[in-house]
Design brief:
The protein is 47% helix and 19% strand. It is α+β, with helices and mostly antiparallel strands.
Length: 427
């Protein structure tokens, strides 16, 4: 892979990754504006602006050419940025660059009709998400960090969405959708010189830039908990997470967290969480997990959908397994299996253009050195001792949160959670 970084005179950074893939390319425009930049008065505005821009753009003539060329365009709001992406054939790269440049230099007008249409769409999206069990990981992060910074909900507050005006969206656009707050990434099969010329031609234009950088709120001093007892039906969901602040070696931390997550979520790892919940007790079909970060803040969590009648035993099993890992670590043969599993997952993703390009882009935005070889070496060099030394830094109740959606009230859930941490029956 060949990498080239182009810093345009207007402040925009273009990152070009030429790979050995044949005939396909991904191009992504990142605006460094997401939910971490919001506050209690405008939570959800980044996502709403993304909707308005994306839908307005797709109604234009250039995007109609996009569809005719077999390309697909998506837009997503994340915690630290908003991204507009096009995947398609390399031969149409010029068109893709032109389309995304419109976002900065020729945006769609925020008409009353467009605004109200997207407002209704987002309210429907919120209603579906906030009434489902799928929100549990976000709720766990909200409990870990508070309703601020990385813990703030991306979809935002329903009442705020109902009241956001075109004026407030336009103000945010003018302050943040500017070259020096943007990163263009081109990844795949293309000529580096041609891509450089296209970036300079379409994204090198002058634009007034009076960026007003919002203050990013600090995370909560200590984790809290989230319990929703208004769940209808036979099943509920729980998620237990831990937060980690700062690390000198981000590659080691990431690989260590992936090893911990694999141990907890893979039912083939005997006597760990997924094995006990799925194989031994039969109270959960699968165990989900997540690792998230923003700058030097990391978190890891696991979640499971279980019957409401099995919520309390599931909490005990998860906490007891966390305590067991903290106190006893991994056996050498267990670590070997986890290392091979992680290397396979990494190689599998590396051979998938969509997943690989997304990973590379994410690392590029964080300015982290990243390669398959570096992570593979990190997994190989892990020891049971350096893993346990890390786990002993954060696998405690004081660094953890539980998020639960079930028929149980808050006192019942929190008492079960605290009692599981206090218990001494760790094998």
């Amino acid at each position: 892979m060949y990498k080239k970084v182009v810093n345009l005179n207007n402040g925009l950074k273009a990152m070009l990754y030429k790979t050995s893939d044949k005939g396909i390319v991904k191009i992504a425009l990142h605006i460094l504006q997401g939910s971490v930049h919001e506050n209690d008065n405008n939570n959800g505005i980044s996502h709403m602006l993304e909707h308005v821009i994306s839908t307005g753009l797709k109604e234009g003539a250039l995007c109609r050419k996009l569809w005719m060329n077999g390309a697909q365009m998506t837009a997503t709001t994340r915690r630290s940025y908003t991204v507009y992406e096009i995947d398609g054939l390399s031969e149409s790269l010029d068109l893709y660059v032109q389309v995304l440049s419109q976002i900065l230099f020729n945006p769609p007008e925020i008409t009353p009709e467009l605004l109200e249409k997207e407002r209704k769409v987002i309210l429907c999206e919120q209603a579906r998400y906030y009434s489902s069990l799928n929100q549990i990981q976000d709720r766990c992060m909200q409990a870990l960090f508070g309703d601020r910074n990385i813990g703030r909900m991306i979809l935002g507050n329903t009442q705020i969405i109902k009241s956001l005006s075109a004026k407030s969206l336009l103000k945010l656009y003018r302050n943040t959708y500017i070259p020096k707050n943007s990163v263009l990434v081109i990844y795949g099969d293309f000529n580096l010189d041609i891509a450089t010329t296209l970036a300079e031609k379409h994204f090198g234009l002058y634009k007034k830039q009076s960026i007003c950088t919002p203050k990013i709120e600090d995370i909560a001093d200590a984790p809290s908990h989230y319990v929703n007892s208004n769940v209808n039906g036979e099943f509920g969901v729980i998620s237990i997470g831990h937060r980690i602040k700062t690390a000198d070696d981000f590659t080691f931390l990431e690989c260590a967290l992936k090893t911990l997550l694999a141990a907890q979520t893979n039912p083939m790892i005997t006597y760990r969480t997924a094995y006990e919940l799925r194989i031994k007790h039969g109270i959960a079909y699968s165990i989900g997990g997540f690792i998230k970060n923003y700058q030097d803040i990391y978190c890891i969590g696991i979640s499971a959908v279980v019957k409401n009648t099995e919520i309390i035993p599931a909490i005990r099993i998860i906490v007891e397994n966390i305590k067991r890992i903290r106190e006893n670590g991994f056996e050498q043969d267990e670590l070997l299996r986890l290392t091979e599993f992680n290397k396979f997952q990494m190689l599998y993703a590396w051979n998938d253009f969509s997943r690989r390009s997304q990973e590379e882009i994410n690392y590029a935005l964080e300015n982290e050195e990243h390669s398959y070889e570096k992570r593979s070496e990190c997994f190989e060099n892990m020891t049971v001792n350096n893993l346990q030394e890390l786990f002993n830094q954060f696998l405690f109740e004081s660094d953890s949160s539980i998020a639960c959606m079930s028929t149980f009230d808050s006192d019942t859930i929190l008492n079960a959670y605290r009692n599981a941490w206090k218990g001494t029956n760790v094998v």
